[in-house]
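Fold sample X.
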Amino acid sequence: MIKVYGSGYCPDTQAALKKLDEIKAEYEFIDATGSVEGLKAFVELRENTPEIYDAVRARGGVGIPCFVTSCGQKSLDLAEVL
């Protein structure tokens, strides 16, 4: 199972979800822009994952989509978690 943190408005998130659907992967989508709960979950991930998000913040990025596997692997690259 992969958790996908992203936004329904983000083209990169939409492309990742399409790819996951195509390969029939099991995933949970956490929409950071769709609810307060989703936003809180994304902010917690972003604030507690400096190994990914320090560089994202330094360049002024948001850092979505982000993928988290059931074993805890985190990445901004879908290929790394498949």
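Fold sample Y, listed below.
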Amino acid sequence: MVAAATVRRQEVTRATAALAAVCTAAVLTAGCGGSGVAAERPAGDGKAPVVPASTVAGAADALVRAGSSQVTTSMRMASGGTWLTITGSGDFDFARRQGELTLVLPKDAAGAEEHRPITELLLPGALYMKDRGEGVPAGKWVRVDTTRLADGNLVTGGATEPLAAAELLRGAQAVTYVGEETLRGTKVRHYRGVADIARAARAEGTAGGPGGSPLAAAAKGFTVTSVPFDAWLDAQGRLRQVSQQFTFSSAGARESAGQNVTVVSTTRFDRFGTPVSVIMPRPADIWTGKIVSRQAG
């Protein structure tokens, strides 16, 4: 029993460290992966009718028309048989592509809060993180140039950027209709499929997306560019929830022979039209010193 408990503590510690590394890395050279509803229930099982990919491809445009919403996120990762999750909540302005999230990392092996919550500001081309962890003074911000991230900031911040999660659906293929459901009191239509990151990046450009597309960067950096997903849309075509599976190499480079890592990213959208206020940190509050990234042992 003692040996089993020791192994369990080691698994929790490794998984927590791995999640912390994903969440707080200032520079990431590879993409990330996920598993969840989309991974456990693959698309095209022959039981659901195939529908046009355009049904879910317009989800990003519907969010922009909605203006803004509250968002809730989770990023789930496996290590040594243990699943741990980073959770987040906040508001996001889809028209301006900016918002603020507060992330909570898993507890340590003893069940204590090992990390204080991380505040993130998401803006076009940049990610600001406060209280990001080791090597950064308390209350200081770290700025990350997301145009230089190999994963396009789909997983680096510990939460998929909400609009990018929807834009990824522009690359949807083999979409099936699962059925009508009720999600947090709202009737929604549940769809399942696989999104190709490169295809989504091309479609984003056609749709007038911003230069330096996060998806274009991710298409080059991810080990596996096919992303299984489950998406729930309301009667207005607005995305209410999306679960996406990403895959990346633990060795860092796309071409490396490192073990692939699985991560589930789930984003929920509620209270459309909610006011969003993003207050930029003062230059004096931005940390420019050395940053320490934890690695799983």
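Sample Y note: The radius of gyration is 18 Å.
Also: Confidence is low (pLDDT under 50) at residues 1-44, 252-256.
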